[in-house]
Design goal:
About 10% of the residues lie in helices and about 25% in strands. With about 250 residues, the protein is mainly beta.
């Protein structure tokens, strides 16, 4: 129980995908209702992944090589705005390490310096056997470089994510063993959205300008929905949902 509650709390803090109990599909059309409705001018001069013009950052394990159009060796598909892979692989590449493929001993023997990276060992390595599924929109993480900095754009046209219309869904699932040694399957789902430009924070929540609760604070994002399915931890469905609900015209 303590282990899974700790994992749930950690993922809420460290991650930036979810649906309602009535409809848990990530292809939920309601995501469209929270995208920015303004047309952002992205010129024809944008570099694209398809053209091979955009390279992984120099500090990445794949640094200075073009982004793949499909899924890369870590599980990212930047072209289609999705991720499917190990929780550890969310960060290993950015930290300059090869992907984790499932063999603990072999990986640490071949990459001993990983154990000296406290960030990885504290926040990612413990959940290496957790599968993560993610989706996001262009405002969250684009597949183009329109500002010419050589990187994939984020919240293009805005100083921060706030007001950009960005959204992201996050699902983590796997198995753990409780104190009695019983196998427990868990499946957590979250949905994050960028609050309106005039939204404000108070007591750990985002609110609209007129005081309506949007969701819990995660930096520039609001966590608007949490679903936890974990029978061993006595969690069986919706834990939190934005009181306003999607599609009410506030985004």
């Amino acid at each position: 129980m303590k282990k899974i509650l700790s994992l749930l709390s950690f993922i809420i803090i460290i991650s930036i995908y979810v649906t309602s109990c009535e409809n848990t599909s990530f292809e939920d059309s309601t995501l469209e209702s929270i995208q920015n409705k303004e047309d952002i001018d992205k010129t024809d001069n944008c570099a694209t992944i398809i053209s091979g013009e955009i390279l992984y950052p120099v500090n990445h394990y794949l640094g200075d090589t073009p982004y793949d159009v499909g899924f890369d060796i870590y599980g990212h598909n930047y072209q289609s705005h999705s991720f499917d892979g190990s929780y550890a692989n969310l960060y290993l590449g950015e930290a300059g390490f090869p992907p984790y493929l499932g063999d603990d001993d072999a990986y640490l023997i071949e990459n001993p310096e990983v154990e000296n990276n406290s960030y990885i060992m504290n926040y990612y390595w413990p959940y290496r056997n957790t599968r993560v599924l993610m989706n996001w929109n262009d405002a969250r993480w684009s597949n183009k470089d329109c500002d010419g900095d050589g990187l994939l754009d984020r919240h293009f046209g805005f100083d921060t994510y706030q007001g950009s219309g960005a959204w992201e869904t996050f699902q983590s699932k796997g198995v753990y063993f409780d104190e009695d040694g019983s196998e427990c399957n868990f499946n957590y789902k979250y949905k994050y959205v960028a609050p309106p430009i005039d939204a404000y924070q108070e007591n750990g929540f985002w609110y609209t300008a007129d005081g309506n609760e949007i969701g819990t604070v995660w930096y520039y994002f609001a966590n608007v929905q949490i679903i936890a399915i974990d029978p061993c931890g006595d969690m069986k469905g919706l834990l939190y949902k934005n009181p306003l609900g999607p599609g009410l015209g506030i985004w």
